[in-house]
Amino acid sequence: MPDVTQLRAPDLTAWTCPAPLRDHPRVVMGHGGGGALSAELVQHIFAPAFGGEVLAQLGDSAAVSLGGTRLAFSTDSFVVRPLFFPGGSIGDLAVNGTVNDLAMSGARAAYLSCGFILEEGVEVAVVARVAEAMGAAARAAGVEVATGDTKVVDAGHGDGIYINTSGIGLIPAGVDLRPQRVVPGDVVIVSGDIGVHGVTIMSVREGLEFGVEIESDCAALGGLVEAMLAVTPDLHVLRDPTRGGLAAALNEIAAASGTGVVIQERGVPVPPTVANACAILGLDPLYVANEGKLVAFVPREHADAVLDAMRAHPRGAAATVIGEAVEAHPGMVVARTGLGGTRVIDLPIGEQLPRIC
Question: In Å, how far from its chain's centre is CA 46?
């Protein structure tokens, strides 16, 4: 093992402002939150180390060409606590999360890999229950777990079970989903209520009760995306707003496309349970994670037909238009409030509730 004192430290003085990592010489929980800290970690550590044009896409999955065939390729790791929660488990998340990452490239998932990192002492019955949940989720999503690996770490050096999944799927001809295709005038559509997964995890983890039972929205979105593409392959970009919530997804798209984004704050579908929980806890629903929703930027001429197709699908029954891409304030997301004012929706620094997936 190399002497860590001899390893080359990154040159923090060369980083551009704002650079939150300058203030964090060690990893903090926010680095895994999908916000500005995560982005800086990728931009200044991983991207320079790995390089490559494919990695530079920085989408939910990478679009690659192999033997003349266009494939989507994605990997994700799941460290959610607790392992089981209303509406799902770490096993469901591991399958649906990777299936959805592939779907955001327009691909239908075909095969997954599965890596289990088990902590010494975890009950075998718990492992079996998670594996069964994964198998059921894979069958429901129409994907096959084709290969895997298992490692065990010492007691006290894990948290029961961590899972890594990778997936591949075929991208249909004529489909090109990436934020660089967004143009002013594109309509922004969200597939349903936001913030449900994050509030569910919070309520179970912290023992909170809000008077109404709430369940995670964890679900595979491949079928919904297929229904949207059946209307037109000319969708511009899709994202599943997981870590960092809807705010992070919109900011990433605005920054990559160089357009501004305006949303109608009262038009964003926030269910009462999520709104009440966020009001009590001082959270903004726009930043709360989702696991079964997507946001789409659609050419205006196709927006009505795509919205109708989404509403005809069980996973998009509550789909609604929340805003549009604009020429003004490029790279910035702005919300128009119910009082007639505006507020800037920034990229979150970290995650309001860590380890939600």
Answer: 19
